[in-house]
Specification:
mainly beta, seven-stranded mixed β-sheet, 10 helices, 54 strands, disordered N terminus, Phage tail protein, FN3_sf, membrane, transmembrane helix, transmembrane
Length: about 800
């Protein structure tokens, strides 16, 4: 080859690309049929006519879109069929939702998870609460109803894993009335009957015919709790071990996330291409499966390993098959070929060449590109994958960069990849590094006409090329594509250079996962706890001016922009029911009044933001306290007999915390024992006695303050209730003579009610005449209250 051409080619290569035409001699050889390769290095479909078998009809979804779609819960009776390989967090359409209970406190939900049977359900995610189903059942499930678990979601716990002690397979753990109770029945898709609990609780809505055959699903019954679910039902999801796949190495079908076997399942499934086993080149698939199972060290010490290529994720069948296959192939840097009527899979690994090409195998001019065009050359790779540790969200993996290549290029030239079926940062970094190194190793590209004997070469095969004219001796190339011209009997092959070192992985290049940085935005649904309140005992003044013992509760509201108030709850330590008060911010105190002196009180508090309640603070305790001194005694106490009872009065002592004056009696024969008969907060009281009770008694009063202290007893005097009497009015004896009266106890008209009727009897001589000047009163005793009665006046009447 003229040296001028080589020099020009080298000069052009210095700015990004070069084309070199080389005249090669012609030699004949025999070969077999091979395929055409199309696509990229990592994750490509390389086959004759496969673009027709997998038509593209919709735009490619990004990894963040894929992550959201897998977790989204929708109210719908129709949804595209979902396929799950490996482990993934998924949700589905809410095909049934109803409520039951006396107050509709039970919410019933049915959510299918996939369009095929699955291996297991490991965790259930109700809103942001995570219930470990697998741990509850010990990792063992039965066919059909894989597991039934009962969970107690503790109030104000916010989100996250539910304590394993609060998850059971035999019934609900004990809790409080503020906690949320959830029961989950998890089905793996092999069930043959409807859920018996749902059919029993809502027989008119869910009968025995609703079996959901072939569909794994979750039936959840949730007891509503404002403290656990302030925003109501938001989502029901599950972490699932997906489809069981066929392994041609031993003929078994089991759960596996081996990338080669999952891709084989999609090819052979009726949901995929529907290929038969006769259309599978088993030797290639077995070799690919073995490569995927190889252990790769991800730490320098060589103590932590992971399989080389796995698939973990899901997709829906509303995507084009070509898109689905490209996403699956991206997990193993794979290429799919169709050779002689059978599918072959090549995963990202170096293949030693089995065919050697020399000058005699070329049929004409060879076009050589010695360097990638600038637009397709890069030295840094970044991208996204799905991270289970970060809520199964699409996150960035640590960027992969080769310093020598950056120095060679003179600047950082980035490229990005999306890995929707990678759930490990080290797996993602290995794929990114493989993309970068194979791209640079393959920057020498050659388009060459080959003699008929090149038909023995298949797409994606590696060949060694010896061309002394360009200085190549056993230079390794991978066949990207070829086409056969039956008129010329020539094969035109497109190849790119290969380097075994590009496929090696060194754990020293690994970087730990990037943890998402928390934003400055504050969640309105997760409130911080209020610190333990402080309690101080003292006295407060009632509306009536009396002083009573109290407890002043002081708190510090959390620095949270959505908290608008703090709820205070308190109770005596011997009580069950909490009393409550809401303290709007910016207030920081609340007074509990009155309290019982000597009783121990418990107090707790929590933040309030709209419908959201924060967690309770720790409980603070204190005993109610009052003053130790006794109140002063009343003065000027007197007692007066009245009809059917007596009236006692006094002058109240000046104590500000005076609560009441207690009234006591000492019945005859005056043994000195006091009996409590009542009390008054005023300056006196009327005590009514029973019918016929006219026994003399002593009366004493004792002051009591709001702290429960009692003063000295003050003896007021003896008293006997007035009773009925009669008297006759005689001639010439009317002046200033009291008229005899008699009282008649009337029948009670209500409980604890009686009335006295006053009867006046006047006897005068025949044909006599009397003038009567009379005043009478009627007292009514009604439920412990002395009420004023009616009165009458005198008149004139004949004898």
């Amino acid at each position: 080859m003229p040296q001028l051409i080589v020099a020009v080619a080298a000069a052009i290569a210095s700015w990004g690309g070069a084309a070199l035409a080389v005249e090669i001699g012609i030699a004949a050889s025999m070969t077999s049929f091979a395929a055409v390769a199309i696509g990229a290095v990592t994750g490509s479909i390389v086959a004759l006519g496969l673009s027709m078998l997998f038509p593209v009809s919709t735009p490619k979804a990004s990894v963040p879109d894929v992550a959201r779609d897998r977790k989204q819960t929708l109210r719908s009776g129709v949804a595209p069929k979902r396929i799950i390989y490996g482990t993934s967090l998924v949700s589905g359409p809410v095909v049934f939702m109803d409520s039951s209970g006396a107050n509709n406190e039970y919410i019933h939900l049915v959510v299918p998870l996939a369009g095929h049977a699955i291996a297991a359900i490991d965790t259930v995610h109700l809103n942001n609460y995570v219930i470990d189903v697998n741990a509850a059942i010990g990792g063992v499930g039965s066919a059909g109803r894989y597991a039934q678990v009962f969970a107690l979601v503790q109030a104000n716990s916010g989100s996250g894993p539910v304590n394993v002690a609060n998850v059971s397979t035999s019934g609900f753990p004990s809790g409080s009335d503020r906690d949320g109770y959830a029961r989950f029945s998890c089905y793996d898709g092999t069930q043959v009957a409807a859920d018996p609990d749902l059919s029993a609780e809502l027989p008119a809505r869910w009968n025995a015919n609703y079996k959901l055959l072939g569909l794994p699903y979750i039936y959840a019954r949730v007891t509503y709790s404002q403290d656990c679910f302030p925003g109501g039902f938001q989502s029901l999801r599950a972490q699932v071990r997906g489809k069981k796949v066929y392994d041609p190495r031993d003929g078994s079908t089991a759960f596996r996330n081996n990338a080669a076997l999952c891709i084989l399942d999609y090819l052979m499934s009726s949901d995929g291409l529907g290929a038969t086993l006769d259309e599978i080149d088993l030797d290639y698939w077995i070799a690919a499966a073995n490569l995927c199972d190889e252990s790769v060290a991800i730490d320098v010490a060589g103590t932590v390993y992971q399989p080389r290529y796995t698939i973990d994720g899901s997709f829906t069948l509303d995507q084009a098959p070509l898109q689905i296959m490209e996403q699956l192939l991206s997990s193993c840097a794979g290429a799919l070929t169709y050779v002689m009527g059978r599918y072959r899979l090549h995963v990202g690994a170096y293949d030693a060449p089995t065919v050697a090409l020399g000058p005699s195998d070329f049929a004409g001019k060879v076009a050589i590109l010695t360097k990638n065009p600038i637009r397709s050359q890069f030295n840094t790779v970044h991208g996204t994958y799905i991270d289970p540790a970060q809520l199964w969200s699409a996150v960035a993996f640590p960027q992969v960069q080769v310093a020598d290549l950056v120095a060679e290029d003179g600047e950082v030239v980035p490229a990005s990849i999306e890995l929707p079926f990678a759930i490990d940062a080290y797996h993602a970094q290995r794929l990114a590094r493989l993309k970068l190194l194979t791209s640079r190793a393959g920057q020498i590209q050659m388009t060459a006409p080959l003699k008929y004997g090149a038909l023995r070469i298949a797409a994606w095969d590696t060949v060694s090329v010896t061309l002394p004219d360009v200085g190549w001796t056993n230079m390794v190339f991978r066949v990207a594509s070829w086409k056969y011209d039956p008129v010329k009997c020539e094969v035109t092959a497109v190849m790119h250079s290969e380097d075994a070192a590009a496929y090696t992985w060194n754990a020293v290049d690994a970087q730990p996962p990037i943890l998402s940085q928390s934003t400055d935005l504050v969640s309105p649904l997760v409130l911080p706890a209020v610190a333990t309140p402080t309690l101080a005992t003292g006295f407060g003044i009632n509306n009536d001016g009396t002083v009573v013992p109290d407890i002043v509760v002081s708190f510090i509201a959390p620095a949270h922009p959505f908290i608008t108030a703090v709820e205070i709850q308190w109770k005596k330590s011997t009580d069950v029911v909490w009393l409550s008060a809401l303290v709007p911010l910016p207030a920081t105190q609340h007074t509990i009044m009155p309290v019982i002196v000597g009783a121990t009180y418990q107090v707790r508090c929590r933040g309030i933001a709209g419908l959201v309640r924060g967690p309770w603070s720790s409980i603070a305790s204190t005993a109610g306290a009052g003053k130790s001194g006794a109140p002063a005694s009343p003065t000027g106490a007197t007692v007066t007999s009245i009809l059917g009872g007596y009236s006692v009065s006094w002058i109240k002592p000046p104590d500000a915390d005076l609560d009441a004056i207690e009234i006591y009696e000492i019945p005859a024969p005056y043994t000195g024992t006091y009996y409590y008969v009542g009390e008054s907060k005023g300056g006196g009281a009327v005590v009514k006695l029973g019918s016929g009770d006219y026994i003399s008694r002593g009366v004493a009063v004792i002051p009591r303050d709001t702290s429960g202290n009692r003063g000295d007893a003050t003896f007021v005097g003896f008293v006997t209730a007035q009773q009925a009497a009669t008297a006759d009015i005689v001639i010439d004896a009317l002046s200033d003579m009291p008229v005899a009266t008699s009282t008649t106890r009337q029948v009670a008209t209500a409980i604890d009610t009686w009335e006295d009727a006053l009867t006046l009897s006047v006897f005068v001589p025949v044909a006599g005449k009397v003038m009567l000047d009379m005043k009478a009163s009627l007292e009514v005793w009604n439920g412990g209250t002395l009420e004023a009665g009616g009165g009458g006046e005198g008149g004139e009447g004949p004898g």
